User: What shape does this take?
Amino acid sequence: MADDEELTTERLPAESLVRSGADDLERAAEAALRPRSLDEFVGQRVVRDQLSLVLQAARRRGRAPDHVLLSGPPGLGKTTLAMIIAAELGTSLRVTSGPAIQHAGDLAAVLSSLEEGEVLFLDEIHRLARPAEELLYVAMEDFRVDVVVGKGAGASAIPLALPPFTVVGATTRAGLLPAPLRDRFGFTGHLDFYETHELERVLLRSAGLLGAPLAADAAAEIASRSRGTPRIANRLLRRVRDWAEVRGDGSLDLGAARAALEVYEVDERGLDRLDRAVLSALCTRFGGGPVGLTTLAVAVGEEPETVETVAEPFLVREGLIGRTPRGRVALPGAWEHLGLEPVAGPGTLFG
Assistant: This one.
């Protein structure tokens, strides 16, 4: 556990704590907490039950299961489910991602090295290059790849048979998948955000694996600020453990949870510094809007892409801001969260 201790006590910048993405360090910290079977996997009951049926049927027939597509926001367990699928089938998992496959030859090399029954996990499958995408169509349907030999007019394609295998594709943007690729998946599961009580179970399990018993009320507090995302919940748990070990008495109780989350500027609704800055600028500087994305980004000192992809999705989902053709507007919940009185103005909901 020594290596795991070193990884999990590494501090992250405050503004990254409630982001659903993960870097290599974060993924290494997550590895020790991943469930190993469908029975251990918390939440996503419908997808879990459907997937269990698909895998059991494949095992009884002694065949590779249909290709699986998992969609949904980041941090909900798509990679974990891919690992569980391989474990449940008793086979190995080959991992790559859409951005890593730049050419059809890159994908052909991966496919031609697969063994019978192996699971190929393609993360961010919507970002596959078009030539690789077309190669994947044939590989998934006919279990073959056409290897091109030579160049120009003298080039010829040699079909190479592949052993049966299963592709597990993961995407945060299912709408970007072309229909021919989407149709080749025999099972599609969409992962939804978790309920607070489900996140409490995730946290209690993770705390046990970390050897840091977590009080039930502390688990509820952390879960309520985790944006419905297990990755964020586990990240906050590690920061609470840091605080308890360094500034507390080592107990992961409600007081430690609240104190740690205050240090890391994660409020009772799960908003962080950037989220509150966006709300504050929208309400106090622009009277509730509407205001353009670029202007709003300049007001909070961030790039427009950061505001649009990092802060906005959660604020919109929580009903705090709205997106209109004229720009972003503050909704009643935003004023209430900041403790401000709504200002009537052109374009706002109060004008």
